[in-house]
Amino acid sequence: MDADFANSEQDETGEQAQDVANDALVRSTDLTQETERGGSTDRTQVMPDDVPDLVETMNAMVNSGRIDNGAFAGEPMMDDEEDILGFTDSDDDEDDVRRE
To answer: Is the CB of residue 57 less than 8 Å from the CB of residue 68?
Structure first.
């Protein structure tokens, strides 16, 4: 290709589906190593938030072998084993039924 007509924005090397598939088959990074938290910090905070994100919470549960039910706060408990576990959640959907 002529250098006068070369356009780097149209160079699709490494972006085609077959290139991405080949990269996925041959991983060059070790997924077991620790990663850094992403995102940007809020400059208006006096002290940064050290609240763990979802991935950190899930990794901590896997490493400790204990389930932190606080990680699921606000989520409905959809357990059919109430006779073993006791009362797990209110049946809100039954309240939606019209009563005549």
So the answer is: yes
